[in-house]
Design brief:
4-stranded antiparallel beta sheet; 1 helix; 4 strands; alpha+beta; 63 residues
């Protein structure tokens, strides 16, 4: 059973939502996830600046 991840410091830029969490090793990570239907894009980053840059430059391929 996978560990439950709780997000904090949620931020939304356009359709992308960014959240900060701790991984299994205790390192702080940032996840960026597109909330548009059928897009499916997500990525993990080691800094919130990188996640915010990815959120600003993300373009959904779904029309």
């Amino acid at each position: 059973m996978p560990a439950r991840i709780s997000f904090r410091s949620l931020l939304k830029i356009g359709p992308v939502q960014i959240g900060t969490y701790r991984d299994r090793q205790g390192h702080t990570k940032d996840a960026a996830v597109c909330t548009s239907d059928s897009c499916g894009w997500s990525a993990d980053y080691s800094s919130s600046t990188a996640a915010q840059l990815a959120a600003r430059s993300h373009r959904c391929r779904v029309s």
